[in-house]
Design brief:
single chain; alpha+beta; 11 strands; about 425 residues; 4-stranded mixed beta sheet
């Protein structure tokens, strides 16, 4: 085993076989993609990468697997195959992230161009970073490396992609069926769900590097109270009732991180400026794996420096627009429209950014996702989380922010036009 020292989790163990995959070009690319995009402009310490986050998420997923499978009877070979596939699904879950920010997804091609017809149900939609993750796992130079290192234990790029996508791999419908139990729902919940390894790591990591305390929660207690239970014919993740208070704290941590960090006005402003550059230039992300692996923050910053676009210049020189007004709404009411008209009539150069963050998509996808459960062992009862804690329903709503930014030199003039508009 090889030990990697991490400021969040301490020692992360990686096997000799896994280190070959960590050293792959596809994974090493994540060293050059910041976890929080432009957030370092507001939080100077937020320069950490998706590379470090992915290693941390793999570590958390391993701890979750140990707890969830502690009471599951499996042959040693089957147990190790599931464990190894899960570890790599978490290690590789961010492979497809574009340079700098989620805003870069707007310059991705149609998903049909990625050649993933067996994995995609709507080929005319725009590709997402999740689609590129699947692409790199099943159709890139990484695919044969996975097969060479771990094919002998039943791990493949397609099976890893299945856990990331939350569906059985095409042509291999029983990939995770052992005996009469399908382990896909349980394993995919560790990768992506209301209580997954991804969120557990990024909240702790982002909070640490941003120098804020909002993202702290008791992840050890949460993991320690996880159990695997059979519910409505499926093996799913459950949280013992004494761990629910820690889950509520986890939800609050995510809510506060959205408001304080993820939707900070500085990073939101620069995301908008980068988006304006994308709208006015020919920068596009390529559909093929080879060229996509050449894209990262460094490559994008080089393109911005070479561009004649005034929006690119603003990003490179950190010439932000100034925040004029922030309201906790979607900025679509009559007062907002009236203010926009005032600013336009006065010749103020401004833009409005509407931030809409869905803290939990569970309720909208209740019938299409695997539910998080609460286990009351003394009563031998299992319930859905939303039926156990009323706090959970609060997160059905979106985080709504509307911000108006204007050119710095026009800020005094713009402020004079606010009048009685709520600040």
């Amino acid at each position: 085993m090889i030990s990697i020292h991490d400021p969040i989790h301490g020692t992360i163990e990686v096997s000799e076989r896994e280190i070959k995959l960590v050293d792959s070009r596809a994974f090493q690319r994540l060293r050059h993609i910041k976890q929080l995009g432009f957030s370092e402009l507001a939080f100077p310490g937020a320069t950490h990468s998706r590379y470090a986050h992915s290693l941390g998420a793999m570590h958390v997923a391993t701890r979750m697997h140990e707890r969830l499978f502690a009471d599951v009877e499996l042959a040693a070979a089957d147990r190790e195959r599931l464990r190894q596939t899960l570890r790599l699904a978490m290690l590789f879950h961010d492979l497809g992230h574009p340079p700098m920010s989620h805003v870069s997804e707007r310059v991705m091609p149609k998903v049909a161009e990625l050649g993933l017809s067996a994995w995609v149900d709507k080929p005319e939609r725009q590709a997402t970073h999740e689609d590129y993750t699947v692409k790199l796992l099943v159709d890139s130079e990484l695919t044969p490396v996975i097969e060479a290192q771990l094919g002998d234990v039943g791990v493949s790029g397609s099976r890893i992609a299945a856990l990331v996508a939350g569906r059985a791999p095409p042509g291999d419908p029983k990939a995770f069926v052992i005996g009469d139990v399908d382990y896909l729902p349980l394993l995919s919940q560790v990768v992506s769900s209301e209580l997954d390894a991804d969120r557990m790591d990024y909240l702790l990591r982002d909070s640490y590097y941003c120098g804020v305390s909002y993202g702290q929660f008791d992840h050890a207690w949460l993991i320690g109270n996880l159990r695997a239970v059979t519910f409505e014919g499926r093996l799913l993740m459950a949280l013992q009732h004494k761990g629910v208070w820690a889950f509520e704290n986890f939800l609050l941590a995510r809510f506060h991180m959205f408001l304080a960090v993820y939707y900070h006005h500085t990073s939101e402003c620069f995301d908008h400026l980068l988006g304006r550059y994308y709208d006015s230039s020919d920068y596009r992300l390529p559909p093929d794996s080879e060229r996509y692996l050449q894209t990262d923050d460094v490559q994008l910053l080089h393109a911005l420096r070479q561009s004649q676009s005034p929006w690119a210049e603003r990003v490179i020189r950190r010439r932000a627009y100034r925040l004029l007004l922030e309201t906790h709404s979607f900025g679509e009411g009559a007062e907002d429209r009236a203010l926009d008209e005032k600013l336009q009539a006065a010749g103020v150069d401004f833009f409005r950014v509407r931030s809409r963050g869905i803290l939990s998509k569970y309720f909208k996808k209740r019938d299409k996702t695997f539910p998080l459960l609460v286990l009351e062992p003394e009563l031998n009862r299992v319930r859905r989380i939303e039926e156990y804690t009323p706090l959970y329903r609060r997160f059905e709503d979106a985080v709504a922010l509307s911000r108006v930014f204007c050119k710095p030199e026009q800020l005094p003039q713009a402020r004079s036009l606010l009048g009685p508009h709520p600040a």
